[in-house]
Every structure is written in C-alpha cells, then in structure tokens.
Amino acid sequence: MVTGASSGIGRTTALLFAERGARVFGTSRRERPDEGGVRMLRLDVRSDESVRECVDEVLAQADGIDILINNAGVMLEGFAEETAPDEARAVFETNFFGAVRLVDAVLPGMRERRRGRIVNVGSLAAWIGEPGEGFYAASKAALARYTESLRHEVWHLGIKVCLVEPGVFATEVLDAATAAGAAIADYDGPRESARATLHGALRRGEDPRKAAQVVWKAATARAPRGRYGAGGQSFVVPRLRTLAPQRLVDIALRRAYGLPRR
Length: 262
Ligand SMILES: NC(=O)c1ccc[n+]([C@@H]2O[C@H](COP(=O)([O-])OP(=O)(O)OC[C@H]3O[C@@H](n4cnc5c(N)ncnc54)[C@H](OP(=O)(O)O)[C@@H]3O)[C@@H](O)[C@H]2O)c1
Known about the structure:
By secondary structure, the protein is an alpha/beta fold. It has nine helices and eight strands.
C-alpha cells in the first residue's frame, strides 16, 4: 500500500512495485483511474475516518497488508514568523500524523500475522533547518525520530520499520505547496532568495525513479537498515551536519540561500 501514489515519488514507487510483480494499492485524495497494475483508492491521511475506510477497503480485497509505504506529504513555504500556528499544524497533520494514522491502522493486522514492513518517507530536509521551510523540516524530523522508536517497539513482532530520506527530486511537490499567509516586509528579500534557491534545486532535481528504487530496497531487504538516503546529497548532508563545525555549516547555508549579511 503506497500513500500519495498520484504523482512524484509515490506514483513512481507504486508503478515500480507493480512492474516487479507486487499487488499494489495506491492512494490519492481524488478519484483516480487504476494505472499500470496499481489499484487506486481514495484517501486523505488527515482524516481518521478516511484512513479507516481505505485500510478496510484494502483488507477487503487482499489477505493483509505486507508493506505500507507512508509517502503522502506536503510542503509549506514561508519564514517561521510569517507562518500561523494553524498553517504549521496543517503540515504536521499530513506529514507526521498522517503517517501515524496509517501505521496505527495497519499494525493490528501486522501484529496478528507476525510480519510486515513499514517504510516512512522522510526528507533530507530533516537534517538541516533550511530557511523558508522550517515547519516542513520539523515535520520530517519528527517523523524520523518517531520511525526510529517504532522500529524498536515492533521489532520482536516480526515487523520491520525503516525511513527513506530523499534529497532533491523533480516532482510536483512545489505545485501542491502552500505559502505562509502573513508576509512580513523585513523578510521579503531573504524569502525570495531562499525561495529561488529551493525552486531552482527542485527544477534540477533527480529522477524520482531513483528514489523509488531506494524505497524498493528498504521494503524488500532481508535485514533493512533503519535509514536509507535517496539521491546524490543523501550521503553528504548527514555527514556534513554531524562532522562539520556548526559555524561552517551556517556560512555555507546562508551563502547557498543568498541570505543577506547582518
Ligand atoms: N521531491 C523531493 O525532492 C522530496 C524530497 C524529500 C522528501 N520528499 C517527500 O516525498 C514524498 C512524496 O513527495 P513528492 O515530491 O513526490 O510530491 P508530490 O508529487 O507532490 O506527491 C505528493 C503526494 O502526496 C499526496 N498527498 C498530499 N496530501 C495528502 C493527504 N492529505 N492525504 C493523502 N495524500 C496526500 C498527493 O496526492 P493527492 O494530491 O492526489 O491526494 C501526492 O500523491 C513526500 O512525503 C515528500 O515530503 C520529496
């Protein structure tokens, strides 16, 4: 079962699994036709009821859910002070609590069968608080730590949990992104510069099929690692974050995002 299978990494992943012989249920908030062997179902991960109905529908059609790929996610652009708590909360509702809802819905079946695999799609953004996407990064950092705890909690039940953290992939994620509502003039220049950096990077992003292959590896490896990076930067960024002095990371990041000096 792949959430958010209507576009980008989720769609490519669902199609790859189907191509490789898996029986795949993909989801979207809208009614979508089945595609390439992927059976499409309606699901809004922000709603308890929608999650329950969707998982029940899958279980009515299949014996059980072997693999859950929690991929649905949204981006919120804007500087922290410009973002209202409700806007920030909305990102967590999809990126964090959406994944939690799905996990809670599939775990009883997986516990009963004493097997199952859960792959949560986080983001490399969790490693560095980039300007203009703080709440997105925070939601993915929360997902990363939650995934780690869950991995240990269900290990003895035969359920394997892992995290895939993609770097930068050319998908529809920015078309679907929301922008913080309260623009503050003091941030106009830096916000536009940070936005241009992010949009430029995503335009030049890698092929989502590369990320799908990493998800496949995480979902099928006999002894899956806790974390898989996907994409060119996924090796460098965590090491830079943990090994390079903070001051150096700050300077490089501010330069990369074209932020003004004091
Ligand atoms: N692209 C990147 O560079 C990148 C980097 C790091 C991490 N990621 C992560 O990878 C995942 C996929 O992103 P993407 O880049 O492929 O973006 P995308 O093309 O915008 O796909 C996002 C998917 O999530 C679904 N979705 C959004 N809100 C939903 C909700 N409330 N309920 C159910 N489904 C919902 C969308 O489906 P509908 O609109 O049809 O409902 C869509 O299929 C996300 O978790 C994202 O944070 C992406």
